[in-house]
Amino acid sequence: QVQLVESGGGLVQPGGSLRLSCTASGSIFSIYVMGWYRQAPGKPRELVATITSGGSTNYADSVKGRFTISRDNAKNTVYLQMNSLKPEDTSVYCCKARTASKEFWGKGTLVTVSF
């Protein structure tokens, strides 16, 4: 079993930055991929970024050059550094962990980009 807890969401002005954190506990050694997803009201859920246990990363085209996903194995934590934020980035951001047999989701953290 894997438990995920996100933090770091909040209100930020356009052009600002936030860093989200996702800390995993439980059977953490069975995780081979972790990622960030987002879903805004009235819009479908979309993949934002992923990182493998080996450190390989992938990003949605809409966030390339602005967002960076990273990990700290000692802290069992994955981060999403978000720069140059736009109003369209406003969403609930959820962390996901995948094992060989199933996937686990955090409860999400709200990011609001607005004046």
Q: How would you describe this protein?
A:
The chain contains no helices and eleven strands. With 115 residues, the protein is mainly β. Strand 5 (46-52) and strand 6 (57-59) form a beta hairpin. The radius of gyration is 13 Å and the shape is globular. The mean pLDDT is 95.
Q: SSE string, helix = H, strand = E?
A: EEEEEEEEEEE
Please estimate the helix content.
under 10%
Tell the overall outline. globular
Structural class: mainly beta
Main sheet characteristics: 7 strands, mixed
Descriptive labels:
mainly beta; seven-stranded mixed beta sheet; 55% strand; 115 residues; four-stranded antiparallel beta sheet
What is this entry, summarized?
By secondary structure, this protein is mostly beta strands. The chain has strands spanning 2-7, 10-12, 18-26, 33-39, 46-52, 57-59, 67-72, 77-82, 91-98, 103-105, 109-113.
Helices and strands in order, then pairings?
Elements: E1 2-7, E2 10-12, E3 18-26, E4 33-39, E5 46-52, E6 57-59, E7 67-72, E8 77-82, E9 91-98, E10 103-105, E11 109-113
Parallel strand pairs: 2-11
Antiparallel strand pairs: 1-3, 3-8, 4-5, 4-9, 5-6, 7-8, 9-10, 9-11
